[in-house]
Amino acid sequence: MDGQPDPRGAEFTHSSRDRRPPAEETPRADARRQTPLPVPPTSPRRGGPPHPSWIKVRFRENERYRFLRERLRRHSLHTVCEEADCPNMGECWGHGTATFLLMGEICTRTCRFCSVLKGRPPPLDPLEPEKVAAVVQDLQLDYAVLTSVDRDDLPDEGAGHFARTIEAIRRLSPRCRVEALVPDFHARPELIERLVRSPLVVFAHNVETVPRLYRRVRPGSDYRRSLETLRLARGISGEIPGRGSLLTKSSLMVGLGESRQELLGVFGDLREQRVDILTLGQYLQPTARQVEVFRHVPPDEFEDLRREALALGFSQVVAGPLVRSSYHAWEAVDGIEGGDAGAGDRPGVRGARGPGAAPPAAARGQRAGQPPGCGPAPPVHPRDLNLADEA
Fold this sequence. Notes:
Layout: H1 27-32, H2 63-74, E1 78-79, H3 80-83, H4 89-94, E2 99-102, E3 106-107, E4 117-118, H5 128-138, E5 143-148, H6 159-172, E6 177-181, H7 189-196, E7 202-204, H8 214-217, H9 223-237, E8 247-254, H10 260-272, E9 277-282, H11 299-311, E10 316-319, H12 329-337
Parallel strand pairs: 2-5, 3-4, 5-6, 6-7, 7-8, 8-9, 9-10
Antiparallel strand pairs: 1-2
Helix pairs in contact: 5-6, 6-7, 7-9
């Protein structure tokens, strides 16, 4: 293959030299990209540049990790930590926290950045809401994060299942705050209202990338539809009598070939929808089947983007190479409730547990001896991350 042009386009060349930003999408270019873009599944290696020094994570298996794993297995529950191969799984599970993955482990959409299984999902487990609530109660969590695969096969796309799970958690654990990272529900107001009427604290939906890259990274999804989903959640919540404050949240991956100006444009679009919380993290290719990394963004660029986003009016911005949308989620909410204008100013958050980062801060109001409930989202497994040796 040496000396031959890469058939997947300039943004997928394996050389670390002359990494030019990808050209603007054109109809002709789009037509060439109807076939899968990543390295073929038979390839034993991932493409893209090697991991830099700041992409390192220690994978620890301690008593809390084993306790949480045993509880999840006992109730036949899934977590996005496992299904999306998150790099923070060892840390979060070691603290007794996780993001619960509702409605099975098979997704009806074919996003090319995600390692969750795709295909035809099985029927819903009607007992899952109570099972999740029982685990939350068992762990005595004061903050829980729920997410799901896309379920476009269901009449309500899973909105009712989300709401029933949140309501079950509230019955068993009245003090537990719940964040839901949800699909776009095709921006159907009646589905979003079903969720917003539940005792939800944070409505999260991720735009994931800049609009120019949607066809390559998120086929089947639509950038404007995602913005509309966030707008509807905020608007509907304000029209419900007696409904307490609802925070909205979104997340972006970087390193897929987007430009700085494109990112700032997305920040502005999210603020137009009055989104409160923004998280930014490095995209990491989980397997050879997913789209390749274009470049690794250094920590100082994350800090610069964080400052730009705060200047636009976000209440909280969490940015760093290993940040995922639900990573230390309770800290952003506590920051808003406590009037802290920048979560990234706290040690260990801005740098996403990078070299020299402080241990995670305890959640405000956490019971003595109990872990706060949070969890990570999108891709990559610790075995793929140049793991640091255990001390």
